[in-house]
Design brief:
- The complex is a heterodimer of chains A (445) and B (485).
- By secondary structure, chain A is α/β, with parallel strands linked by helices.
- Helices cover 34% and strands 14% of the residues of chain A.
- Chain A folds into two domains: 115 residues, Aspartate Aminotransferase, domain 1 (Alpha-Beta Complex); 256 residues, Type I PLP-dependent aspartate aminotransferase-like (Major domain) (Aspartate Aminotransferase, domain 2), CATH 3.40.640.10.
- The longest helix of chain A has 37 residues.
- With 485 residues, chain B is of the alpha/beta class.
- Among the domains of chain B are: 66 residues, no CATH class; 256 residues, Type I PLP-dependent aspartate aminotransferase-like (Major domain) (Aspartate Aminotransferase, domain 2), CATH 3.40.640.10.
- Chain B is built from 14 helices and twelve strands.
- Chain B has a seven-stranded mixed sheet, with helices on both faces. Chain B has a three-stranded antiparallel sheet with strand order 10-12-11, covered by helices on one side. Chain B has a two-stranded antiparallel sheet with strand order 8-9.
- Classes of the chains: A alpha/beta (445), B alpha/beta (485).
- Chains A and B meet through helix 1, helix 2, helix 3, helix 4 and helix 5 of A and helix 1, helix 2, helix 3, helix 4 and helix 5 of B.
């Protein structure tokens, strides 16, 4: 059994004696008899380090080593070695939220730099220190939109990630929101002709580009549309795509939020990831969660602190802008380190390679007669939907036997949907893509 | 002594390069993205790899974690984070969250096993591992309570009773779940005033949120009566598991009458706090509330752990994908390592360390409530206030002795509270060092109070001007001409 208790049994006995307590049980006298554990917890006995390691070595995670043609909100990108090496500095990861600013300047500056990075990437004015993930960033944005406009009606594009929509619906459940889903057109673009009938008394519209189906939407047009209708516009962005695509802030988006996982954060079966939230400065005080600000100490040294705390739960309690009392600090730091390692040229190169490889894959797949592109007229970044008349799940099983992870069968979210959502990123080599195309061709015969 | 430390943006040097990529190995196509959608060059800094390493290594040296020294931050359970557990997440790093069930089998088995282990520790029947943090768990648990009442057509139950000693997230979460937070006055020891509770409950009561041991580090002696009162009124009782490090293997919330609870894996189960996150806040419930937990829920089907999506009464999703999976891995490894005996010993040692610390400080500071404590306790400056010394001065002075300060000014019911939680992983020498420092500070408060007011002096910066930061918020670095490409 491992123990991380510092003191030996003998030392503990001496300490009890020193403070005049007869035995360990005396310390727990306040627990009423009927509420006490009368027997040992039903858990296995503790294990040595080697035994724990063996247990984990026995887990079959072989799918992690296969070339991956799936994205759908979580992406495999190359993570430069310098990023995990720097994250392993335990001054960062074993620290708490930086309440004591003087001894937390490292993390505070790191988060301040993250906020700056996110603003420079998205073109927005302000950023918070992050929330849990892309889904909760969208849900928190609904609350921010309501606070900013005093209106309960939120329009959102049906082309958002289905799990983000589900999460928004949960958050809206008991708090009087009216959610209106805006369908998308046959080109996979949010249907503004539909939206126009619902903007009355709405707070804002939330739409993604690239959207869940990979389509690059015209965010400039959506921003103009929203502002003409007198509502706010929120873009959900893949931050990595901004190495290439126009920044939401440059076309007038009021908020830009999303999932920061593509910025150096491992897939890790779904988390921890990074929800980023950036906004026009008008809405700074509507942002939830931690925000780091710059100030000075008494000697005029630049210093960083958690700021604008009057929004937060520990001050405002039931009137707070959100209940969130943490951020994904270490993941935010990861994103900043990744952007630092890539630099502007590297980020652009990653985005370009994703674009090129996904299009190479797209052309290859659609040269196979069994597959038909669903949105052939629309531009896409690194994901696209292909219709397949056969059984997509059976297809993926065959591909796995050949050593590949195929696209996401959309029937996972929509019963009867014949689509597969494919993705290619910079980590796939041409030979892997060619091998995958061969396997596809054989599998559909 | 205090040297300015540049921002990463101030280290930008055009054309420097850290990471690189292999040359594009597929034929390059043009015109793939409409010109109108293409962005301009991004104003991001260019650095060499050495620049980056020096920058973040420098930042790390301006930070303080548990590995640097004692961190007795009350209610935060800053215990040691085992190195083994940090390594084990690597097994799962490259697993995509939307793979088919067979490919994710290992991840689901681990989650199911963690759910079972948490149930054993807490006396609950089922845990969801989806919530990403304690506050997220509160929100989830409260929505479960709301759904339960709605299911029973009990729509009037809109009041959530919350003691004034509670964590600020409790009332904030209640609001987000659509409840009206009703504040319950606590007794001076932070305990629930049973008579006041009897008066407060009614047919409008949805439930009570409680932290036990409470935020003064005292166990609710009347806990069984308290949960009974709420149940008799038709309400449910929520356990804020922030303080469960005091009672693992000693008592279980499920046995005290709690219906819903969260645990903070980053507190009691040894996963690192990451400088503010990521954590994880699994929510456990009693049997009758299982149908309302977020979907999907990991269940055993034909002997295999699989996500169950077919949950018509579920509140829905609270997060994308499988929760903060990497954090779950570390917590599971922690529980495997310690086992039943190890968890109980951890709680015992945590409570002993707190009592030891308290014993040697109570004559120089004021204890708002005497008697033995659980895993944490609250002190106030007491008579030191007469020297013009406040809790914040004591906290800042402690930094110069090489320790992280306690939580200050919480709980709100104690004026100038200083809340200490040493945890079980501090040695006797660590505690003696902390005691020495705090006693020296109390002495200095009498002989040379001015020196405390200028503390800390050993840190990269002195006390920052927080008012200025809030009045004139600067939340990003300005773009200078040299940042342009």
């Amino acid at each position: 059994m491992r123990s991380y208790v510092a003191n030996s049994k003998r030392e503990m006995a001496e300490m009890l004696n020193a403070i005049g307590v007869t035995d360990m049980d005396a310390l727990f006298m306040d627990i009423p008899w009927d509420a006490r554990c009368k027997r040992q917890l039903s858990l296995d006995d503790g294990k040595s380090e080697i035994e724990v390691r063996r247990k984990f070595d026995a887990y079959d995670t072989s799918a992690a080593r296969l070339p991956l043609f799936m994205g759908a909100g979580a992406y495999r990108h190359y993570i430069p070695a310098v990023v995990p090496a720097l994250l392993a500095r335990s001054e960062f990861y074993t620290a708490y939220t930086p309440y004591q600013a003087e001894m937390s300047q490292g993390m505070l500056q790191g988060i301040f730099e993250y906020q700056t990075y996110m603003c420079r990437l998205t073109g927005m004015d302000v950023s918070n220190a992050s929330v849990y993930d892309g889904a909760t960033a969208c849900a928190e944005t609904m609350i921010a939109l309501r606070a900013a406009t005093r209106k309960n009606k939120i329009l959102y594009s049906a082309a958002l990630h289905p799990e983000y929509i589900q999460t928004m619906r949960t958050y809206a459940r008991f708090t009087g929101f009216e959610l209106v889903e805006i369908p998308f057109t046959e080109n996979g673009e949010t249907d503004l002709m539909y939206a126009v009938r619902h903007t009355q008394a709405a707070a804002g519209m939330i739409a993604a580009s690239p959207n869940f189906y990979g389509v690059i939407e015209d965010i400039a047009q959506m921003a103009d549309f929203s502002h003409t209708a007198g509502i706010l516009f929120v873009t959900v962005s893949n931050p990595l795509s901004l190495g290439l695509l126009k920044r939401p802030g440059d076309v007038g988006a009021d908020f830009c939020v999303g999932e920061g996982q593509p910025l150096g954060i491992p897939l890790s079966a779904g988390g921890p990831y990074l929800g980023f939230m950036a906004a026009n400065k008008t809405y700074m005080r509507n942002l939830p969660g931690r925000i780091v600000g710059q100030t000075e100490d008494a000697w005029g040294n630049r210093a960083f602190v958690l700021t604008l705390q009057a929004r937060e739960q520990h001050i405002r309690r039931e009137k707070a802008s959100s209940n969130i009392c943490s951020n994904q600090s270490l993941c935010a730091l990861t994103a900043a380190m990744y952007l630092g390692a890539m630099g502007p040229a590297g980020l652009k190169e990653v985005a370009l390679q994703c674009l090129q490889k996904a299009h190479y894959l797209y052309d290859g797949i659609h040269s196979i007669p069994a597959f038909a592109a669903r949105y052939p007229k629309s531009a896409f970044f690194h994901e696209f939907v292909t219709d397949y008349k056969g059984d997509a799940i059976a297809l993926n099983s065959k591909l796995k036997e050949k050593g590949f992870i195929g696209g996401l069968p959309l029937c996972r979210y929509f019963k009867g949907d014949t689509g597969l959502l494919f993705c290619a990123t910079e980590v796939l080599t041409r030979s892997e893509i060619d091998g995958f195309l061969n396997a596809l061709e054989v599998a559909v015969k | 002594m205090r040297k300015p430390y540049k921002l990463i943006f101030e280290k930008h040097c055009i054309d420097r390069r850290a990471a690189d990529l292999p040359a594009l190995d597929v034929p390059k196509m043009d015109g793939l993205v409409p010109q109108a959608c293409l962005g301009e060059a991004l104003p991001l800094p260019s650095l060499s790899e050495m620049d980056l390493v020096r920058h973040y290594t420098g930042l790390s040296r301006r930070n303080f974690g548990v590995d640097n020294g004692s961190y007795p931050l009350g209610s935060c359970t800053m215990k040691y984070n085992p190195k083994l557990n940090e390594e084990l997440t690597a097994h799962f790093n490259d697993l995509h969250p939307l793979l088919d069930d067979d490919a994710l089998s290992a991840a689901y088995e681990l989650q199911f096993a963690l759910d079972r282990a948490l149930c054993a520790v807490c006396g609950m029947d089922k845990f969801t591992l989806q919530p990403a943090a304690g506050a997220h768990g509160e929100l989830t648990g409260l929505m479960v309570m709301r759904s339960y009442h709605n299911m029973r057509q009990d729509f009037l139950r809109a009041e959530m009773l919350i003691p004034d000693a509670a964590h600020g997230t409790n009332p904030a979460s209640a609001t987000m779940a659509g409840f009206k937070a009703v504040e319950l006055k606590s007794l001076p020891d932070g305990g629930v005033d049973v008579e006041a509770l009897k008066q407060a409950v009614s047919e409008k009561t949805a439930g009570l949120m409680l932290t036990n041991p409470n935020t003064l580090g005292l166990f609710e002696k009347n806990i069984l009566e308290i949960t009974q009162i709420v149940h008799d009124a038709g309400g449910l009782v929520y356990y804020d598991g922030a303080n469960i490090n005091a009672i693992m293997g000693k008592a279980r919330p499920g046995d005290m009458g709690f219906d819903v609870m969260h645990v903070n894996l980053h507190k009691s189960f040894g996963t690192p706090h990451g400088g503010g996150g990521p954590g994880a806040g699994p929510v456990g419930v009693k049997k009758e509330l299982i149908p309302f937990l977020p979907a999907p829920l990991i269940m055993k089907k034909n002997g295999r752990a699989r996500p169950d999506y077919d949950r018509p009464l579920s509140i829905g999703r609270v997060k994308a994908f499988n929760g903060n999976f990497g954090v779950l891995v570390k917590a599971y490894a922690y529980i495997l390592s310690l086992g039943a005996d190890g968890l109980r010993e951890a709680s015992e040692a945590a409570v002993l360390n707190a009592n030891y610390l308290r014993h040697y400080l109570k004559d120089v500071y004021e204890l708002p409530y005497d008697g033995l404590c659980m895993h944490e306790f609250v002190l106030t400056p007491g008579a030191l206030n007469e020297q013009g010394i406040h809790n914040v001065d004591i906290a800042k002075a402690l930094i110069d002795y090489g320790y992280h300060p306690p939580t200050i000014s919480f709980p709100l019911i104690v004026r100038e509270a200083m809340m200490f939680e040493p945890t079980e992983t501090e040695s006797r020498e660590d505690l003696d060092g902390l005691i020495y420092a705090l006693r020296q500070i109390a002495e200095t408060a009498k002989t040379d109070p001015d020196s405390l007011r200028s503390a800390p002096l050993t840190t990269p910066v002195g006390r920052p001007d927080e008012t200025r930061a809030a009045r004139n918020p600067i939340v990003i670095a300005p773009l200078s001409s040299s940042d342009r490409l």
